[in-house]
Every structure is written in C-alpha cells, then in structure tokens.
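Internal ticket #5521
Category: modeling
Description: The requester needs a full-assembly model to guide mutagenesis choices. All entity lines are attached below as received. Residue total reported by intake: 755.
Assigned to: D.W.
Attached entities:
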Amino acid sequence: MHEFQVMARSLVQDGTLAYDQKLRRLAALATELLEYPAVSPECRDALDKRIICDMFEGNAPFAARYILPDYERAIRQGLRYLEMPPPQNLDDALSFLQIMYANVPSVTTYPVYLGDLDKVLEPFVTDDIDDERLDATLRRFWIAIDRMLPDAFVHLDLGPHDSRIARSVFRVERSLRQSVPNISLKVDPVVTPDDLVEDAVRTVFETGKPHFVNHPMMAADHGEHYAAVSCYNALKIGGGAHTLVRLNLKEVALCHDGTVDQFLTTTLPHFVELTAELAEARIRSLVEEQRFFETHWLALEGLIDIHAFAAMFGIFGLAECVNTLMAYEGLDGRYGHDDTANALAVRVVQRVAQLVDDRPMPYSEGGDGRCYLHSQSGIDSDHEVTAGTRIPVGEEPDLLQHLLTCAPHHQYFTAGISDIFHMDDTAVRNPQAVVDIIRGAFRQGMRDFTFNLNSNEFVRITGYLVRKSDLAAIAASGSARHGSDRLAAGSENSFHLTQRSVKRIGRGE
Amino acid sequence: MSLDCPIGSSDGVVAETITFSNVDGPGNRFVVFLQGCNFDCIACHNPQTIPVASGAHFRAQVDDLLPRIRKAEPFLGGITVSGGEATMQPGFLMELFSRVKADPELQRLTCFIDSNGSCTEETWQHLAPVLDGAMIDLKCLDPEIHHRMTGHTNASVLESIELLAYMRKLYEVRLLILPGVNDDPALLRRTGEWLARIDPAMRVKIIGFRRHGVRHHEPPLMEPTPQELAAAAENVQVAELNICVI
C-alpha cells in the first residue's frame, strides 16, 4: 500500500502530465491493487522475468484491448445508448462519429479504430458537395480528432476502392501534417488504381502515412470485414482482440541450452504454452469476471460481437533469437544477412505458428478458436531486443535483401506484421518507384508494411507515428499533448529508432 | 578508341550495377552502368567511367546479369542502361534487352537507355525494336558552348532527340544547368522553344550542377542556387513542356 501511495502521489504531483494523462494513469494504477488473473507459478515466473509479457494491460481487464465497432451498421441503425438517430447528411454523420468515438473504449482509453472511413462516409458525399467543401469539412473533423483523441494508436482505414473520401483524406493529411489519426490503405492489385496508390505514396512523403495493407491476403484470412487498427493490428470489424500477450523470443533462446532441434521441440513449445496460458487467463478475466460483453453498450446494440473476437499472440526478438541459436550451433551468420540464419528464422516462426494453431482458446471464434499470431512491434520499455520479426535497427541490409528476408514471414501473421522500410529522399521525385516496390511486395506475399522517408518530420517509432519536433519538445520540457509521444521518447532513448539505416534506392544525381 | 571487347560483342564492359534506383527513369529500376564514354564533360559526376579501360570495370555477360535482374524483378518497373555512354556497346544492349523481352518472367519490365545522344540514327534504328524509352542529356543547344563543355559538337545529340521523339521513344530530355556556362536566359529560352517544337508536352528535367564527384576545374565550376535553378526552369518553360527541377 505504501508503494501505491508513493506512485499515486508522484502522479498527481507530476508537473509534466496533463490532467487527462494523470487521470488515465491513476485508473491504471488502481487496478494494480486487484489480484492478477490466476495463472500457474511457471507462468507467473516467466511473466516476472519478462520472457512473456502482458503489455501492462492491468490486473483486471474491464474492456477488450482492441475494439472495432461496426460503424457502417451504427450509421444505419443509430445509437440507442447515445440517443443518436441515423445521420442524414455528411455533417450529421461526422458529428455522429465524433460522439461515438468519445464512447468507444480500448486499452489506451482512446478508440483504436475510427472506421473504414470511405465506406462509412461515401453515402453522404453527394454531388452537391464539391471537393473544396469536402476538404474543408474533413479538415475540421481531422483537427477535432487530433485534439480530442491525442493518441497515435487512433487509426482509420481506406480502400481498396477509389473514393472521393480517400482522395480528400490524403489532401487534408498533406495540408495538416498531424500524427493523429494513423491510416492504413487497403490495396487490391486489381481494384486499387495505381494513381490512388501513388497519391498515398505522396502522402507518405509528407506525413509517414498511410500504411499499406495487402487486401486480398487479409480478406482470405479474416473475410472482407476486417481492418488494420492501432499499431497495425489486423482484426475483424465488429470484433477485435480481447488481449495481446507476447513472447520475447530473445529471452527464450537465452533460456535454452542445446541444439536448434531441441529448441524447436522442447524449449519453444514450453514458453508458447505459458504465453497461451496467460492469454487464456486474461480472456476469462475479461469475459467471465468483468463480463465486458454482457454489459457494454456496443455489445448490447450489436455493434461488436464476442464471436468476432480472439486474443492476439505476439512475438518479438526474432533477430536476437536467431543470432543466439546460430551461435549455439557454432555459426556466425546473422538474421537479415545470411541464408542459413534467414532460413532458421522462418523455421522458428513456422513452429510458433503451428504451436499457436494447435492451442485452442476460449471465446476466440474470431480466430477459429485460436489466437491470432502477430509480429509485435515493441513497446517503450523494451531494451536491446528487436521489435517483432524485424531486422535490428542499423543492421538492415539493402532494400531488396531486406524485402526478401521479411517476405516469407508475412503469411503467418494473421493479425499483422508491420515491417518498416526506409527510403532515400530521391524517391520523393519518383513516387512510382515506391508504387513498384509496394506492388512487388504484395506479389511476394507480404501482408502489410510502411515506409519512412529519411528526411521526414514524421517517424515511425515502434509502429505508431510521432513528429520529430514533438520528440525534441519532450526532450526539452518533459511534457507532450499526445500520450503516444511520451512512449516514443522512451523508445527513442532505448533504440535510436530515428537512426534506422536508410534504404537507398538510388544514387544522388 | 579500343574496348576490351568489340563493339558488336554481346559482352558488356560494366562499371557498376545498382539493384534499385529511383533516379534512372520511371519507377524503380535495375541499372547497369557501362564503362567508357566518347564525351569528356567538364561536369561529369562519374569521370571514372569515361576511360574505355579503367581499373574498376569488369566484363559481364548478359547471362551473369539476368539472374540478378530476376531476383529483383517483382519490385522493378524496368531496367536502364546508363554509363559511361550506353550506346557505345550496342551489341550488349541488344542482347540484354532482347533476352529480357523474350523471358516470360521479365518481359513486363521496360528497357530504357540513358545516353548523351551522340550515337547514329543507324544505332537507334537497330535498338528500336527492343527499346522502350531513352533519356537524353542535352548539355547545351549552342554548338560552341556544347563543344567547350563536352569536347564534341552537338549535331548528333540534336538529331537523336528529334529522331527518338519521332519514333516515340524519347522519355525525357535532361538539361544540366552550369551557372555562367550554359544558363544564359536567351539561350535557355531558345532551348525551350526548340524542344517544344519537337514535342510541346516533352518531359524535360532541369538538373542543377553539383560538384560532388566532379574533377577539378579552373576556374572552379559553380553550383546554381535554388533561385538560379528556378529562373533557369522559368526560362526553358515554353508551351506545355513538362518540366521538373531537381
């Protein structure tokens, strides 16, 4: 209790935290006084040693981690709880959404999904609304989102079809240059026109957004009704993720003593099971103890359905895991640079995928009764371990080798993988070059990825976006309006992520 | 001028290859830089590629390059052969482009040449069936200044630009701006007019000279300021010329 008091006092007296930020942290602190969901001593031990991780979701989850309300349905049927009739025009629809966003929970306390905005809004974009008015209207909406939901995990989706909304969003994005909302563009090689992808690429050059999603691949895994949300997690619309647990493959390799085959047959399965046990305990706590789905208005009005949920099973530290296992075998090849190491990486991921697929999970019909596998892109407290299945920062090989190393992993990560590729500034004058790479990556079976531009004001830290100027402001004053900027400052201090090696796709002229 | 291998040979004398380039034509391209150039430009960025025999080059057969192109193919829009002067090795160009066009996996890639425009009509006609586009450097419209800048007159360059435009193989013309040498406003206006007469919507890239990599010169060559470069672009702008400044 004394420790709690010390922490609570330091929070309320912290001069750098905004009022809202204090409130949210105090709430998180309060649940720490409750008992942790029951897990075995082995699971507890792995959790304490941070071999497995619960992403600091708290001891008593009372809302699902990621929630994807069916906004199209909400717009059609209205909201009883919020006394909102179905909107009749664009202004009403945007006001409707803004009100709804304020009432959608998530692990961050802000909504992580704002809808497939083109599909939700296109019915209201009538011919009498010209582009100038559309841009002005969306611009006001965009400013409201950034100021009222100051968190870069707030995410919306566009595509794969071309639309006036998508075009307007990209124009507004380029003019406002905000870190919120984050955006994914679903790309279908057949349906999505090249010039929409190119428009998106031009927007990446300005704002680091959108992220690119392989629509046919996602639709094959989730059905058409899916979205990329938060830190690039692909989940079902009307569903989501109860929780995200993750396994630190670097630590698993360090616990291991023996051959690669023994790693794959004994050590890895042991820790995968402990991670799954944690997921199950947290799901049961949310569903059975806190009874989220029986009580929340989104579920009661049919805008989310427990049957479209599952838990996410994340892995990270693949690079260090592979390099460690290689060393055990007396080999010095490194992940990203050596064929043997790269092949071993695929074996490890395949094995995890198989183990997760063999492990039934309650209340997880969204994932056919299993966890969704996710390549987890890291959190601010990670030290000396590489995000997900990425190649360590600064060690990235040339862009072709980087793409070819990452591509074979993408098929396994139903809930997203979010690789990041860095581009030379010369790409700005030749966006078609980036379009070629995007289309090629999809041809190679890549699921989702994004680009950082060397000189960009916006930089992707682990998965979300911050402005470099905001990072500099935190370093100077310690405070930030966006909650995610603060996390970014932690990651930047640990990893110097803004110093990722640039993938040159050109020489200087 | 002697090459390690005869001009008609399908072997290439290669200075360097780049797997992904976004500055050598449309989209993302695999680029082969050939060794040896018949011009001797004072502003050359890669003077090491001028001599037909230099320590850094290697002989390459198309068979050596194809597997590397194939590996990168999913991510490419095409291939570009640059230099040096690409058209000094037409046998290699013909072989490389023909093999790409004949390969089911590679045939969607466009085949481009980046050239100083000095080669003959005969060479262009020979390459035309396998060539998708050419990028031609025009150092200066004025023959005397051109001679001072390159050691050669520009008659063949101007003919190449006209011929390629007529053949619909001209992707872009590049104008290098060297302050005090080839940026006289009246000269640039004449250049724009001449280009627009050939194709009013021609793609023209205005490139500011940069010292990086360039040999020492007396008096020193000056880089244009952004203002000088913008003024140059304005002077060239005629009709609907599609001008981009870099």
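Resolution: model delivered.
Comment from assignee: Residues 1-6 of chain B have pLDDT under 50 and may be disordered.
Ticket closed.
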